[in-house]
Amino acid sequence: MLGLMSSEWFKLRKSKVLSLLLVAPLIGLLGGLAGSIPGMEGINEWYGKIVMMNFSYGVLLLPLITGVFAAVICRYEHQEGGWKQLLALPVTRGNVYLAKFLVLILMMLVMQLLYLGSIYLVGTIGAITDPFPMDIVWKSILGGWVATFPLIALQLWFSLIFNSFAMPFAINVIFTIPNILVLNSEKFSPFYPWSQPFLMMNIGGSAEDFFFVPWEQVLTAVGGSFLLFFIAGYLYLQRKAV
């Protein structure tokens, strides 16, 4: 398994998409330096900065970049009989799928940690003297990471189906763009997979809830959709003709 994961990591390094790990945290950094949410005077100054940064990061950047990495990770196998060469090795299809998924979630964890660094850097540059809300921030960072699991599984499934990088990426863009509208709907946002990263990072949600959203939402919208997409992609690779 570690050998397969190392191979996937090497292929991603060659594709030069790893620089995207820095793009979203940098944009978040610039957003935080630009200002904070008005009307939050009198509370911890960090909160205004974090809410400002989380909006663009959680609504657009995190879902989009998740889709890019998932779309790229099968690109080499789709070229010049790559699947035949890979599956001719003494590896199982299940391990290949699991290795790709694990590499993707680890990459998103790295990006979340870089984003955490950008949050702290914004406060340092802005000379914020209020105590850093570590408990709230860690909850936001881990919540956003967990919320990407269904998106990664879905995009990996699409990446297995389509030979072109453009198709799975385009699908992800189509469903990410309406996020702002969906988030305004109390009826649809709790079940829309592309909305979950922002909702589970939103420190403006209920601090008493698990990852700022009800536990039932974590189980259904995140856990349920993750299992559905993960199993669908796993079974597809098992039956994929090469």
From TrEMBL:
Pfam family, one: ABC2_membrane_4
UniProt entry keywords in alphabetical sequence: Membrane, Transmembrane, Transmembrane helix
Transmembrane regions listed in the UniProt entry: 50-76, 97-116, 136-158, 165-183, 218-237
Keyword Cell inner membrane attached: no
PANTHER family per the UniProt record, alphabetical: INTEGRAL MEMBRANE PROTEIN-RELATED, MEMBRANE PROTEIN
Protein name: ABC transporter permease
